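Spend some time on the protein that follows and explain the fold to me:
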Amino acid sequence: MNDNREPEMLTARDLAQVGRGTPAGEWFRRYWMVAARSDDLRDIPMRVRVLGEDLVLFRDGAGRLGLLGLHCPHRGTSLEYGDVGPSGLRCPYHGWLFDISGACLEQPAEPPGSVFHEKVRHLSYPVRELGGLIFAYLGPPDHEPPLPQYAPLAEPGGQRRIEAARHYDYNWYNFIENGADPAHFSTLHLSDPDDGTWRSWFFNARDVPPFDAVETDYGMKVVSRKPAAEKGLSYVDEKSYALPSVMQIGDTEFTHFKEPREALARGSSNAHWMFVTPDDDDHFTLYTVDHYTGPDPDFMTRLAPSRRPVATAEKPEHDHRPLSPYRGSVRLEDIMTQSTQGNVACRQERLAASDKGIILQRRLILNAVDRVRQGLRPQGVPSPEEGARLVRMDSFTGIRAYPPKPDGETDVRSD
């Protein structure tokens, strides 16, 4: 009997599940996802978990990358403990040898002349390396797209730094939606509005900056702004989101170096990109890349200490809350709110006008998920012809005319 029923309408609740066969899981499997940092993969196999699948990552003796199912198809032993050789990865239990394509090359205990190894094909996925990150594609082979040439990884020159991978024990979407919500900066990341820094002046609870949520070719951005002294100009701070789960923040150099507002006149020179990979429904891994193209030769050396998550608040003896103290560290403040808000699949919400960034983001993602259900290429997946094009995101922080009007005039406060 033919089932001609329409597929169920997608909602934000569908974004929480990333396993194979789920709407969001099949959507994610049309993109290249970061599986590891290049520096973390050395001479032994590395266990990784991507989109609910347990896998093992390795380089064979020729330096070729392989990504296989974690458990040997013979008797299930973990290949994380296997031996890397010139042509592949050998299971430590009975010596079955697999190359990077999953083909079984040797089965030492089988009778001489046996061709049984030719009938064994282990799970394997394509792997590519770009700018210090290792990407994996877990989707249908006939839909494999080019690996996007993300500008901070592919662009030559400048200074590049990839932070240590950070692992989180909550759903991937809680982190991603935070980037489409600039309103929280003025409350959660509260600081002294009179300390002389641009950020404390710009994002403060006494004068929350208005913002726009703007759709782009790669996804969206939120644009916060306040009027500058010069007529027709604004202080502008942008945060961008690219499908499926990449974010960029434009104000890193000004925020971490506690610059005054006058410093914004030169504009931002650092691309601060965050690649989010769902490990499963309840965990994700964050890979952060900085690519600086400004004149400071010691920029990365100065930036590194400021990225450490150190809370400035004291913890009273009677405070038994597991995530306190968190005040004074943007990272710890984000972890507290995101990890305690609950999974989007089961939380109760009352979205308001200031949630327009989140509303736009959900619409973009759900539209992309639906395109996959229809057998179409989702937004953010490059066509073969677009494979060599650099992928950039707009995350400007500085002073400029905003928003532009057809007649060339500027209304810096309009929504």
